[in-house]
Amino acid sequence: MSLRTVRSWFWISSDERGRPVPWQIACLNWAVAFFLLALLCFFSFSQLRYNWNWDTVGGYSNFFWRGWWNTLKISILALVLSTFIGLVAALASKSGLLALRAMSRLYVELVRGTPLLVQITFAFYVIADAFHFQDRFTVGLLTLSLFSGAFISEIIRGGIESVGISQLESARAIGLTRFQTYRYVIFPQAIRLILPALAGMFANLIKDSSLLSVISIEEFTWNAQQVSALTYSNFECYLPLAAGYLILTLPITLWTQWLEKRTRYET
Amino acid sequence: MKLRATNLCKSFGQQIVLKNVNIDLDNVHTLALIGPSGGGKSTLLRIIAGLEKPDSGTLYLNDREIIFRETELMAHRRSVGTVFQAFNLFPHLTALQNITLPLEKVHQYKAAEARQVAEIILERFGLSEHGHKPPAQLSGGQRQRVAIARAISIKPKLLLFDEPTSALDPEMTAEVLEVIEELREEGRDLVLVTHQMGFAHRVADQIGLLSSGQIVECGPPEQVLDHPQSETTRQFLAKILKY
């Protein structure tokens, strides 16, 4: 076995980087990456003086399931709602009505520039309280959706603006209405460009939902914290917590990768 | 076609692009607009196409005034076919879909009808085998021919070309000009902005030379190109015929 062959298992020269990697070689290199990660984890945990207490925590598994399920529900609802809010805000920022543009800007800058933690507390203890509205779940869901919606609106706006002026001109020349131009010309071209950013945003949204625990919404993190307090254990609660979020965010990444492939076209 | 423009003016900010353009043409099939860059010929074409509003002046096409309000302009744009220099087509659609989109969404054809119309036109332009391809897989000349196919598929009362071959190499220019000449022979009404003087000479009934926002000379090609009356035309022709 020559050195060159071994090197070809681990290295692609710059003129071949556009080509797909054979699956055997891909597997091998994924294994290397996992091995290095495992090494780091193994070393770190071996240095830790900690009495693992999995059995006690295991007795509270229904807490985890219930919390995970609630987080899943909140995430799905917030995902749909924030996409809708983001779309409306993005279109408002392109509106002919200047006040609407200003409102959209104000919303985006205010929400993007302040911590979610403050927003959740403020929304629940000040705004909702003023209207005598006590439903934590709804307040939490709305706040989270508004928060993500601001980021999504900027992503969508960027996508809309990336569609060339000549495309809009062509759409105008063939007589499409403004709505039709968005529907048949702008969005199909923009979606391809915004998908990676959108996927990242959706994953963030799922993780950000953990902050809803501060107003005692019984989602995943809140439940893990309860178990942690009841059993005086830390890592046994936080490790399953991390894994549970990963199970939610990974499908999003895979789904958008699939969508990206489907919407790809040459330019 | 009958085309009458009276005192058309247009400026973009400080820059005056058209100043008091007057045209009065009766029974003309092909009008070619020529002249130096920045002379205003594209702007005039875009006003005729309903893509730009003049600051003042009136425009009559076949005895009907073009009203420069968005609703009326939309209807006007839907009744004419416009082909630009480049990037006419939508990159996310196939050649065929590029033609069927306006037929279905603007002109209320049923999907099957639109497809049929598109296929017939593609066939006519020798593009049948390319119908399923996105623009990126077509040559520049093929792209412009698809764009022309899209423009004529709606049975426009007027076809407008804004430097349709400026972005093409000579061979592709020829294939696009051939198509335009064919359309003229069918008796369609065309207005085109072009730098191809030989072509303008061959196809145009009337040539208008625009310079500094004004029509310097307008008349049949034999007059404007062969026996120019004005000094500006002579200078312009001398300059472009030098190379």
Describe this structure in words.
The complex is a heterodimer of chains A (267) and B (243). Chain A has 267 residues and is mainly alpha-helical. Chain A is 78% helix and 0% strand. Chain A has helices at residues 3-10, 23-47, 54-58, 61-92, 98-113, 116-130, 136-162, 165-173, 178-208, 220-231, 235-262. Chain A binds chain B through residues 164, 166-167, 169-170, 172-177, 180, 184-185, 188-189, 192, 263, 265-267, and chain B through 49, 51, 74, 77-78, 82, 84, 86-92, 101-102, 105-106, 134, 136-137, 150, 154.
Structural class of chain A: mainly alpha
Radius of gyration of chain B: 18 Å
Whole-angstrom Rg of chain A: 24 Å
- The overall number of domains of chain A is 1
Helix content of chain A: over 70%
How many DSSP helices of chain A?
A: 11
Distance between the ends of chain A:
43 Å
Distance between the first and last residues' Cα of chain B:
34 Å
Element order of chain A: H for helix, E for strand:
HHHHHHHHHHH
Looking at the structure, the CATH topology of the domain at 3-89 and 161-241 in chain B is: Rossmann fold
For the record, the CATH class of the domain at 3-89 and 161-241 in chain B is Alpha Beta
The amount of beta strand of chain B, in percent, is 15-25%
The CATH first-level class of chain A comes to Mainly Alpha
Q: Find the count of extended strands of chain A (DSSP E, 2+ residues).
A: 0
Summarize the SSE layout with pairings.
The complex is a heterodimer of chains A (267) and B (243).
Chain A: H1 3-10, H2 23-47, H3 54-58, H4 61-92, H5 98-113, H6 116-130, H7 136-162, H8 165-173, H9 178-208, H10 220-231, H11 235-262
Helix pairs in contact in A: 4-7, 4-10, 5-7, 6-7, 7-9, 8-9, 9-11, 10-11
Chain B: E1 3-12, E2 15-25, E3 30-34, H1 41-48, E4 56-61, E5 64-65, H2 70-79, E6 80-83, H3 95-105, H4 111-124, H5 140-153, E7 158-162, H6 170-185, E8 190-193, H7 197-203, E9 206-211, E10 214-219, H8 221-226, H9 231-241
